[in-house]
């Protein structure tokens, strides 16, 4: 069963949170206790936010383009491209939703 609400929240997170630094969107999309699981370990929201802000300082033109979102039940998968002036890199992730908010996200962040 497709979960269109989860798909929309993933899109909102990428568009407002990651691309525009609107961290208020985290309250709408991410659950209390949110955890990002990456290849280099787990990050809570504050650590994840610091990582993204570091990327944005180094690459102010950084833009995440969502190439596709699919969902089933309480999971949504996303493929994106991160683009800077000199590079682009693809990434993928899976979000786990509960009570309408993203509890956890497993992702492979691009190396820029």
Architecture, according to CATH?
A: Roll
Helix and strand composition category: alpha+beta
> Major β-sheet, in short?
6 strands, mixed
**What radius of gyration results from the CA coordinates?**
13 Å
Strand content: over 45%
**Total beta strands:** 6
| Unreliable runs | none
Order of helices and strands: HHEEHEEEE
- Tally of helical segments: 3
Mean pLDDT: 94
Number of self-contained structural domains: 1
Query: What level of helicity do the residues show?
Result: 25-40%
* CATH level 3 topology: Nuclear Transport Factor 2, Chain: A
Q: What is the CATH first-level class name?
A: Alpha Beta
Shape: globular
Cross-sheet strand order for the largest sheet: 2-1-6-5-4-3
Cα-to-Cα separation, first versus last residue: 35 Å
Q: In brief, what are we looking at here?
A:
With 112 residues, the chain is α+β, with helices and mostly antiparallel strands. The chain contains 3 helices and 6 strands, in the order H-H-E-E-H-E-E-E-E. A hairpin with a 2-residue loop joins strand 1 and strand 2.
Descriptive account of the structure:
By secondary structure, this protein is of the alpha+beta class. The chain has a single domain (4-108), classed as Roll (Nuclear Transport Factor 2, Chain: A), CATH 3.10.450. Helix content is 30%, strand content 46%. It is built from 3 helices and 6 strands. It is globular, with a radius of gyration of 13 Å. The chain starts with a helix and ends with a strand.
